[in-house]
């Protein structure tokens, strides 16, 4: 019975990061703070790494999580270009998103391997 609640609690960080990603990815351009060139790529990488890591910790299978994040990366970039929020669709951002997702999954797999935890 406690395992059920433990599983549910591990999903909270993923939900928080998913909501944060919606805010970051779909904020109108007027609300995006100015930053040095390349900062947006770091944000994209970190955001998708966090989505992947918290998703794996939440128990989402890699074979479902990674394709879902790749799809989310592509859809978010297309929507940024189509929605009237003053943002643009950038292939480089999508590629950095995917790299972040792969890195997040890899870090969790490495930590689990080193600690001897299951990889589900």
Question: Secondary-structure map with pairings?
Answer:
Elements: H1 2-26, H2 39-57, H3 62-82, H4 91-115
Helix pairs in contact: 1-2, 2-3, 2-4, 3-4
Write a short abstract of this structure:
The protein is mainly alpha-helical. Helix content is 75%, strand content 0%. The model has no long low-confidence stretch (mean pLDDT 93).
Query: Average pLDDT value?
Result: 93
Radius of gyration (CA) equals 15 Å
Poorly predicted regions are none
β-sheet strand percentage:
under 5%
- Total number of domains: 1
Largest sheet: none
C-alpha geometry: elongated
Helix share of residues? over 70%
**Number of extended strands:** 0
- The secondary-structure element order is HHHH
* SS content category: mainly alpha
State the helix count. 4
Q: N-to-C terminal Cα separation, in Å?
A: 19 Å
Keywords: Membrane, Transmembrane, Transmembrane helix
Protein name: VanZ family protein
Transmembrane segments: 12-30, 42-63
Jot down its keywords:
transmembrane helix, membrane, elongated, 4 helices, transmembrane, mainly alpha, VanZ family protein, 120 residues
Question: What does the model show?
Answer:
The protein has 120 residues and is mainly alpha-helical. The protein has one domain (2-27, 35-115). Helix content is 75%, strand content 0%. It contains 4 helices and no strands. The chain has helices at residues 2-26, 39-57, 62-82, 91-115. Helix 3 packs antiparallel against helix 4. The radius of gyration is 15 Å and the shape is elongated. It starts with a helix and ends in a 5-residue tail after the last helix. The mean pLDDT is 93.
């Amino acid at each position: 019975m406690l395992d059920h609640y433990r599983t549910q609690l591990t999903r909270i960080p993923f939900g928080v990061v998913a909501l944060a990603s919606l805010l970051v990815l779909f904020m109108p351009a007027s609300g995006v703070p100015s930053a040095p060139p390349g900062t947006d790529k770091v944000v994209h990488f970190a955001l998708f790494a966090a989505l992947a890591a918290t998703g794996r910790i939440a128990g989402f299978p890699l074979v479902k999580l990674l394709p879902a994040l790749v799809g989310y990366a592509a859809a978010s970039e297309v929507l940024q270009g189509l929605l009237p929020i003053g943002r643009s669709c950038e292939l480089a951002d999508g590629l950095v998103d995917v790299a972040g997702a792969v890195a997040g999954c890899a870090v969790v797999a490495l930590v689990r391997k080193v600690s001897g935890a299951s990889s589900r």
